[in-house]
Amino acid sequence: MTMVFLNKEIRDGDNPDLTEERKTATFDTNKMAEVIYGSEKLARRRREISQAVSLIPELADSKPLPFLSRNEKILESTRKVTALNEHLPRLINMNDEDEAWHIHSEVIGFEGNPLALHHSLFIPPLVIQGSDEQHEKWLGRAKRREIIGCYAQTELGHGSNIRKLETTATYSLSTQEFILHTPTINALKWWPGALGKSSNHAVVVASLIIKEQNYGPHLFMVQIRDEQSHEPLPGIAVGDIGPKMAFNGADNGFLGFNNFRIPRGNLLNRHCNVEVDGTYVRPPHDKMNYAGMIRVRSRMAAEQGTFMAQALTIAVRYSAVRRQGFLENKSQEVKVLDYQTQQHRLFPAIARSYAFIFCGFETIQKYETLQNEMNSGNVSLMADLHALTSGIKSVVTYQTGEGIEQARMACGGHGYSMASYISEIYGCAIGGCTYEGENMVMLLQLARYLVKSVELAMRGKPGDLGPMVAYLAYPDIKVDLVTGPEAYVKMFQHISKRQSIKATEKFHRKMESGVSRDEAWNQCAVELTRASRLHTRLYIIETFIRRVDSIEDLSIKMVLTDLMNLHLNYELLDVASYALEDGFMSSTQMGFIKNQLYSSLEKIRPNAVSLVDSFQFSDLQLRSNLLNFLFQVLGRRDGHVYQNLFEWAKSSPLNQTEVLPSVTQYLKPMMEKAKL
Ligand SMILES: CCCCCCCC/C=C\CCCC(=O)SCCNC(=O)CCNC(=O)[C@H](O)C(C)(C)COP(=O)(O)OP(=O)(O)OC[C@H]1O[C@@H](n2cnc3c(N)ncnc32)[C@H](O)[C@@H]1OP(=O)(O)O
Ligand SMILES: Cc1cc2nc3c(=O)[nH]c(=O)nc-3n(C[C@H](O)[C@H](O)[C@H](O)COP(=O)(O)OP(=O)(O)OC[C@H]3O[C@@H](n4cnc5c(N)ncnc54)[C@H](O)[C@@H]3O)c2cc1C
To answer: Which residues does the record give as FAD binding sites (predicted)?
Structure first.
């Protein structure tokens, strides 16, 4: 049987413009997929899973999702996710989170579903914070999906500042229970995905109170609905928070407690505890209860890189079949992908997708190391990884939003149609700027770490700096960019270091002038977030270079070197003003970077379609095949866009009747009245 999307497979019947693109590729997309996904086996597994899903009709959308109401969307996503549940053990390794993520994104798309958070936000905190006994009680049931769960932390009044969460869990010595209570409207849990209508359990974050002392946010396992009737348990108010910008196949919800009692054993107590007599046993790190958030953030670079890659696959393929305007040859209009402006719009974003995915895999590995260390009681890596993931989460979500929006614009009018599916991808991805820590808030977390590091360097203690920030103590030696990537890294290090130092010095000066620490911090906050972004972008560049260095296959290494050079020049150009300001970069160097960038665009051009083909998204995943009711048509692998756009329009419910009630009830009477 032929795989649905082998690259070098040139298929009869595909749009010849796309076929032509695939023939110019200088590398094999299967080999590239191995680099993107980490190994031959992992890339092959993805193809096998996509192939298997495409053969199960009940896993396909039964109708084009953009034409559905919210209730219908939830019903449809629930139908698919439960059907998928039946097939899962046969299709994927149930312990492999990447396979689970991939298959859900194939089947569900981007609209979310009532189990969306069960595997990513309910089970992980239970694993991380739950004791063996608690795993015994809930983990198996959760994994088998006997119970459905969510993660209820954010409240109506507080999301960013979790120390001020108002939901309380008060320990009752007499009954050895925790009493969960929502004292005000503001204290209602608000936002948790899958809470509104689907979950019957929640990991609830509440302020732990023992003998009137507040011990801060802690995690509790709470059953919120009856397992038989699915009715909320007495003492619980729960519901959906209404439609959102996107992700409307998921039921984000609210939750309130009226002195709702849970057993003492429901405090997730692997790292901390409340003993029978109310004695509090501290965790080994003050912020241990936040570990689950580090985990989610550590996965966001790869996730967001994949979102952007999906939008770019649609936009690049479409740009190779869309012909409009002329260059030299006036007898045939050009593919819009041949315009330099189009390339400048799309190719740097392709480079960023690769960069984020490579960076993401490193970050996930770092988290796994942290997790192993935490399990053996060593929490020394937490601060570094908290700082790193705070920055990465913020930079990649923002730049992914930019990249997807450019992809949409690059598709002209058809990009604005829901037939492109890009708006749905955008809506899902851009939520990442807010969820899991609002971006500015998280950049300021990284800034705390950078300021401390600069202070160490200033105090002449560079030896105390971790490897991630060692450059803050490096001397400034001018670099010749012609010598290659290392020189770019040094230039970036200078820029990042200078901004961190400037922001720290400004902060110190403010305090010396008598301004309080908090106020001084706020007065420097914009400069501090700039330092955080630069530091993070430097880190992403370094991971890209490391990955390319490690590649052995020459054809892959060559094209990825082109992509990396594009990334280096694009990133450096974007921040050049910082280095021009102090004369570290000359205007000649600036000209050099621009020329390198333009020449990188030309080098990438013949490989552009194959670079996005290499992500190996199936048409199902991109919602790109109308015939199977998968409705998105712009990014189809076969490139037959126009006839499918027409089919898409014909399938609109509005076109199922010639004269709508809006006409008979309102427009016609209006026109008749005007005639009188
Ligand atoms: C196709 C498939 C589609 C799938 C799509 C997926 C959809 C998923 C959708 C949604 C999921 C979203 C889930 C959520 O959003 S859950 C809620 C997340 N909420 C947050 O992230 C809240 C953010 N706020 C915080 O994390 C904290 O409030 C804080 C900003 C970190 C501040 O905390 P706190 O006030 O306690 O701390 P301080 O600022 O005073 O800092 C004190 C020191 O502690 C250090 N610190 C803070 N956090 C950590 C940590 N996690 N680990 C280690 N150390 C930490 C901090 O650095 C300070 O150190 P210092 O040395 O400077 O004193
Ligand atoms: C799609 C989606 C899914 C979500 N899923 C979940 C979930 O499953 N479970 C859950 O518990 N939560 C969930 N959330 C909630 C989410 O985690 C919070 O919305 C997020 O952490 C931001 O908090 P906030 O809403 O309080 O923003 P706010 O903090 O109110 O942000 C408003 C503005 O204030 C600024 N600001 C706030 N504090 C500071 C500061 N200290 N310094 C400078 N500026 C500041 C921010 O930068 C922002 O510009 C979800 C949210 C979304 C959008």
So the answer is: 154, 193
Beta-carbon contacts of residue 19 (< 8 Å; ≥ 6 apart): 10, 11
Long-range pairs for 261-264: beta carbons < 8 A, 24 or more residues apart: 261/172, 261/175, 261/177, 261/178, 261/179, 261/180, 261/235, 262/169, 262/177, 262/178, 262/180, 262/220, 262/221, 262/222, 262/223, 263/176, 263/177, 263/178, 264/171, 264/176, 264/177, 264/178
What's the full length of the chain, in residues?
676
- Alpha carbons within 13 angstroms on the beta-carbon side of residue 526 total 1
pLDDT value at position 633?
A: 82
d(C-alpha 293, C-alpha 652), whole Å: 41
Mean pLDDT to the nearest integer, 86-103? 92
What residue ranges define each of the domains in the chain, with the CATH number in brackets?
Answer: 38-116 (1.10.540.10), 145-285 (2.40.110.10), 292-609 (1.20.140.10)
Q: Residue 161: what residue type? A: N
Decide if 494 contacts 574 (C-beta within 8 A): no
Q: Which residues are annotated as a binding site for FAD?
A: 154, 193
Query: For 352-380, how does the pLDDT look when each residue is reduced to its tens digit (9 = 90+)?
Result: 999 999 999 999 999 999 999 998 999 99
Dist. CA 103–CA 591, nearest whole Å: 46
Q: Residue 63's pLDDT band (boundaries 50, 70, 90)?
A: confident
> Residue 436: what residue type?
E
The closest alpha carbon to 544, from 350, 403, 254, 404, belongs to: 350
Joined together, the tokens standing for residue 669 give 């009477």
* Rounded-to-integer distance, Cα 169 and Cα 623, Å: 44
Q: For residue 301, how many C-alpha atoms fall within 13 Å in the half-sphere facing its CB?
A: 30
Closest CA to ligand 1's atom 47: 287
What is the predicted pLDDT for the residue at 452? 97
Dist. CA 135–CA 574, nearest whole Å? 48
Give mean pLDDT, residues 413-431. Answer: 95
Rounded-to-integer distance, Cα 196 and Cα 303, Å? 25
Residue nearest to atom 17 of ligand 2 (CA): 435
Residue 585, token pair as written in the block: 């970069």
- Residue 78 in contact with residue 148, Cβ under 8 Å? no
Residues with CB under 6 A from ligand 1: 105, 110, 121, 151, 153-154, 160-163, 193, 287, 290, 293-294, 382-383, 386, 428, 435-437, 441, 445, 448
Residue 325: which region, alpha, beta or left (left: phi > 0; alpha: psi -120 to 50)? left
pTM, 2 dp: 0.97
Q: Which residues are identified as catalytic?
A: 436
- CB distance 57 to 84 below 8 Å: no
For 559-605, write each residue's pLDDT tens digit. Answer: 999 999 999 999 999 999 999 999 999 999 999 999 999 999 999 99
